[in-house]
Amino acid sequence: MRIHEWLLLSALCTGSVQSQSSDWVRRAILESRVMGAHGEGYNMDSLNQLSRRLIPADIPAIIGLLPDKELRMGAIFALASQCDAAIAPTRDAAVSKQLSFLEAQDVLGTIQHFPACNFTTREKAAALLAELKSLEEAGRLHQSQLSADDARINENGLKLLDPKLAKTLTRQEREEVYHRSLKAMGIKEDGPMSPAVRSLVDKMYRTMVLGEHSKPRPN
Known about the structure:
This protein has about 220 residues and is mainly α.
């Protein structure tokens, strides 16, 4: 074991390892870039460099650099270089939207195939990768359902304008249109209302939900 590795191991065991400055982490990421067919980027050599230069205590600084567009891809590689220590922070960053699900999957996929990470760590990364993919798919399905609901409620709102078509709507469908209309107008049903707004809301409820029609004004 080389002397600097022994010192690092000793510091980790005693809890005396301190995170390095954000500027130092930034420099380490930039200096790990390599020239490839499409210009400067990051590859396995970058991972190896970052795994030697960075330590788990640097992970908050790495995450703090994610908003920097120039460093974002490098920060993703830097996270992956920290193997097991980066798995939980990567999940947290995805949940908090600091990383997109796709970027978090990149981190975990890189850990999964990084030989410097041990077998147990690579399995943990694979398991979380599968979980994130499931969450992403569930999110897409939910968004798709919301879009379908919006289209359906808008269509039902148009049906309410035609007395014949309005009769084909159920009470629940009428209430959906009513609630959506109030929301679009910025009216909170459980909030304070002036007498004029209350009168308008009551009238909307009678016509949209109960199907009552306003009596024509006398000439």
